[in-house]
Amino acid sequence: MQLEFHSSSSSLDAMFRWARGQALAYVAPSSSSIGPWYEAALPGRNAFCIRDVSHQTEGAVVLGLSAANHNMLERFATSIDERRDWAGYWEIDGEGRPSSADYSSDDDFWFNLPANFDVLDAIVRMWRWTGDDTYRDDPRFLEFFRRTVTDYITRWQLQPETILHRPRIANQRLENGRFVHSRGIPSYSEGPKDFIFGADLLAAEYRALRSFQEIAVTPQDKALAASAQSVANKVQQLLERVAWSQSQQHYLGVIRQDESGFESGDVMTLYFGAAKDPDHLRGALDYISSPKYWQKINIEEESYAPLLLFRYGRTELAYRILTDLSRPGKPRREYPEVSYAVIAAVVGGTMGVAPSRSGEPFDVQTLAQLPSAGDDASLQSLPFRSNLLDIKHTGSLSSSLSNRSGPALRWQAVFQGTVRRLKVDGKAVLARHDALPGGMAVSSVTATVSPGTTVIVSRLEK
Q: Where are the beta strands (DSSP E) in 91-182?
């Protein structure tokens, strides 16, 4: 069944319909020799890129493309090799080979170092969304996890104690070649050359080490994950110390040998959840809230912004950028990442759907962030783990979840603001209180939704 979205905002409806059609147009034919996949690179290249796939998975999974996500993530995970210093392929073509646009040999290929960390986190996120334990337990994924959090970090000198002293290109094997100066770019930022690493590299490394802890099951992996947490903490502290600009009040994008820096690393630092200092986090959000900033960034970076801003409670700006990103006539709107990012922003932002992390006392949560308090919106046929769900938000007053198929699941219904009690199917229940990382106060209750039933949660102000 195809994912459906409807709202009282005609512009939001049109945005979703365009994004769904555009995204599905990039899905490879079912006869593909390499199994299911979708384009995630420059249009027409007939390929998928490791960074783009890591980002596009969230939009793809809600469109029912879980098999394609699994196939592509597995291909990147199994492409790591000691001959390439445990880097995966940057881009894989429709025949399953490393794309000739980025690869000549194991000594001469293009690769951006955040990518291994990014794909590790994407694998864990897809495990949360789908409940597919092969993401966690398959020996091929396990090999990738273990190599990435150990040998990959060591080989590319990404330990907290060495990263400030590393050369920009750490493992250059040849003097001449197509990609010898791009074999291990220490950032997703590809323009400047005068830096030793990017804030996004630190943020991605931190997130990967944290995500690995969530899926470590065997005694060996639990011990490895535990030891990796001290590395994660040091990487995060280094990010706060070196990448944060006190004078400019935001995270710098790339860092030079002398610890000076330039450009902006705010979007990716926030995307990977690596900003922990509350003042720094607010400063980064304020920085990317400036139209002067987001109107000049490239469309790849802009595509991360809407869902990110929803997650930090910057609703109004999220819609402004979402509207700009998807408007007819927007240069490069056809880039595959854009349509998948719009879908992810509608599902994860407007509707606030998010899977639980390991150990949390619920399975799925929702939080309405509608364009205005009087709007309503609904999702139909949302695939989630073994379930098929319908979700509806009526303004800021009520939310409902229908469990059309699959086992019972625990739904955490979240509302904006501090509310003492919420009603679950008409019965008043004391609400829990929390805040989003950006500071928005929220109230929530958790309800079990049995198969074939609908639960309604609404506000009770008094």
A: 91-93, 103-105, 108-109, 111-112
Residue 242 DSSP symbol: I
- Contact (CB, 8 A) for 98 and 122: no
Return d(Cα 197, Cα 186) in angstroms, integer. Answer: 5
Between the CA atoms of 297, 301, 302 and 304, what dihedral angle is there, to the nearest 10 degrees? Answer: -160
Residue 77, CA distances (Å) to 69, 221, 267, 303 in order: 12, 17, 25, 24
Q: Which residues contact 26 (CB under 8 A, 6 or more apart)?
A: 38, 39, 40, 43, 336, 339
Find the distance separating the first CA and the last CA of the chain, reported in whole Å: 41
Strand segments, DSSP code E, in 58-120 are 91-93, 103-105, 108-109, 111-112
Q: Which residues are 424's β-sheet partners?
A: 427, 457
> Pick from 18, 1, 14: which is nearest to 389 by CA?
1
Radius of gyration of the chain (CA): 22
Length of the chain: 462
Instruction: Estimate to the nearest angstrom the gap between the alpha carbon of 451 and the chain centroid.
Output: 29
- For residue 376, the cross-strand partners are 394
For the chain, the average pLDDT equals 96
Q: Please say if the pLDDT value at position 231 is more than 90.
A: yes
> What are φ and ψ of residue 48, in 5° steps?
-135, 135
The three-class DSSP label of residue 376 is strand
DSSP code for 375:
-
Q: Tell me: the pLDDT tens digits for 115-143?
A: 999 999 999 999 999 999 999 999 999 99
pLDDT at 461: 62
Interval 356-368 mean pLDDT: 97
Domains and CATH numbers, the chain: 4-350 (1.50.10.10), 364-460 (2.60.40)
**Whether the Cβ atoms of residue 346 and residue 5 lie closer than 8 Å to each other:** yes
Q: Encoding tokens for residue 157? A: 């000198």
